Amino acid sequence: MASTSDIRKGLCIKYNHDIYKIIEFLHVKPGKGPAFVRTKLKSVTTGKVLDNTFSAGHKIEDVRVETRSYQFLYAEGETYHFMNTDDYNQISLEESSLDASDLLKEGEIVTILFNTEDSMPLSVDMPASVILEVTHAEPGVRGNTATNATKPATVETGAKVNVPLFINEGDKIKVDTEKGNYMERVKE
User: Which SS3 state, helix, strand or coil, does residue 65 take?
Assistant: First the structure.
């Protein structure tokens, strides 16, 4: 058993007869009244996200998880196929267990969380950033903007990312997988 002081991003807990992964949390200590923890939980079975508030010191039942490295092979509809990089076993997961499936390209290494009790895959953790090639971007016109102007661009996985005006087709860019934002242009 854990308490609210153990809450951190990525922790898997049992709550309302389901397993949830904490995707956001905030410890709040108001001037008047007891402290509490505001959380955003994502169900690993249905993918549904819900907001919940735990009072300080509340006991939560955490789920013991094990992480393994897997390589993304290919997507078939809403089913994503992965291969274990150690023993080459393959597993298939539904799109709902992935956080940023539109930024996942073939050959990418991801971390999959497994429940240690029944060896069921719980969720897929993407790397912090991915490098993708821009396949379509409108030409940027110099001089008609103030500061920090962006334009929509399509990357090789089909995702749309807002990029600065100097990014052109064929450029490689680094994208933050958590927010889906442009980080920088990558030189080869």
Answer: strand
Q: Where are the beta strands (DSSP E) in the chain?
A: 2-3, 12-15, 18-28, 36-43, 49-55, 59-62, 65-76, 79-84, 90-94, 109-115, 121-125, 129-137, 150-155, 160-164, 172-176, 182-186
- 34 burial type by CB count under 10 A (0-12 exposed, 13-18 middle, 19+ buried): exposed
Q: How many residues does the chain have?
A: 188
The rounded mean pLDDT for the chain is: 85
Residue 146: is its pLDDT beyond 70? no
**CB atoms near residue 112 (< 10 Å):** 21
Name all domains of the chain by residue range, CATH numbers in brackets: 2-62 (2.30.30.30), 65-125 (2.40.50.140), 129-186 (2.40.50.140)
| The two structure tokens encoding residue 68 | 């393994």
pTM, two decimal places: 0.73
Report for 37-41, 59-63, 100-104: range of highest mean pLDDT: 37-41
Q: Which two tokens stand for residue 170?
A: 């064929």
* Contact between 126 and 25 (Cβ < 8 Å): no
Residue 99 in this model has a pLDDT that exceeds 80: no
